[in-house]
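RETRY 2/3 - previous attempt timed out on the joint model. Re-submitting the same 290-residue input unchanged.
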Amino acid sequence: MSGVLCANSIQAWAKLVRAEACVLDAVERELRAEGFPPPIWYDLLLELKAAPEHHLRPVELEARLLLKQYHLSRVIDRMEAEQLVARRKCPTDARGLHIALLPAGGALLKKMWPAYQAAIGRHFAAKLGPGEHQQLSALLDKLLP
Amino acid sequence: MSGVLCANSIQAWAKLVRAEACVLDAVERELRAEGFPPPIWYDLLLELKAAPEHHLRPVELEARLLLKQYHLSRVIDRMEAEQLVARRKCPTDARGLHIALLPAGGALLKKMWPAYQAAIGRHFAAKLGPGEHQQLSALLDKLLP
DNA sequence: GTAATTTTGATGCAATCGCATCTTTTGTCA
DNA sequence: TGACAAAAGATGCGATTGCATCAAAATTAC
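RETRY 2/3 succeeded.
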């Protein structure tokens, strides 16, 4: 089953790790410098906003954002402390929760978008040519579950 | 300068972050389960081994591995505690150091390679087609400094 | 030559992560 | 039904990260 990986594979692997770290770090740093929370907060809020009734269960958020269970649990702690989201009882499963979008969450989403977009544009999008975003997307799709 | 990013860019961005996290996490988890240290230790040892006299300065390691200064400083702490590398005085710059590869470091490199290779193969390389590794490499190169 | 600036590396402290485990509730199957 | 396994979330604790800052040496400027 195994054998030897070719040099191309190893190099692609190394570049994936390095490039992502480099770009994500630049974006996070830029957002933080402007007083914004980390990108994952934005992503989470966006998922909630896109959801049918502006709420999702943690399990669903885990799957969409690919977060680990304990990680998400703590992100929600912090966002709840900032009144961005609220934990509500889930009516159909007593084990579960609804994570609901609060007004302040919607407001942050709006306020953060220009900065987030600019950061992604500067540190990521601008470095690729026109068709390359889709090309990269297609390749990364194969790596996703 | 700015304007609006197209949906393709945003999606590619999101996939880059998610896919990398997903794959790196799987590889790290697998190595850890077999009792090995994190991949960055391997990468660092490999850089040292490839270096002319099996030693490099922290600044050089930072640049090659794209690590932050304080991060690298602490990684070296841990690796030094395990006798994998040693901090030596740098003869040409009294501020600096030589990080030297120790025998145990070389041994770990050898011992770890099969596991590392297998993990990368399983969680990354196997998911891409023959030419796609190079294709991905080329795209990621544009994101690197 | 000396003062100001930059570079290199370390570290205190607070925030975050990762693992393992716990509680509660659901689902399965005899 | 009743026992047993699986799923959803929370959390204690130790390890790691990130920021800010420090000290020491090299470089630059005057």
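Residues 128 and 136 of chain B are 9 Å apart (CA to CA). Closing ticket.
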